[in-house]
Amino acid sequence: MSEKSTLSLHEAARTLSARPDDLHEVEVMLAHAIEHGELHANVKRWATEQWEGLQLPGNINRLETYIERSELSAWQQRRPAA
What we know:
Strand content: 5-15%
Distance between the termini: 32 Å
Strand order of the largest sheet: 1-2
Order of helices and strands: EHHEH
Radius of gyration: 12 Å
C-alpha cells in the first residue's frame, strides 16, 4: 500500500514529531513556514469565533490545511541542520 501524497498539517507534524509532546511545536513551525512562503500548502483558516484547540499562526486550520508530501520533503531538505 502506498503512502498518500497529501497530508493535513496535523498529519505532517505527526510525521516530523519525535515525541507526542512536540506535536503542537511542530505544527507551529509548519504554520510559520507556510505563512512566510517557505512551504507551499492548500490553506484553510479559522474565523476567530470558530477556533478549536491551540491556535496556530495565521489562524491556520491544522486539520483542513493540506501539504503535498513532496513539498514537505523539499522544505525539510532546504532547512538548515539543527
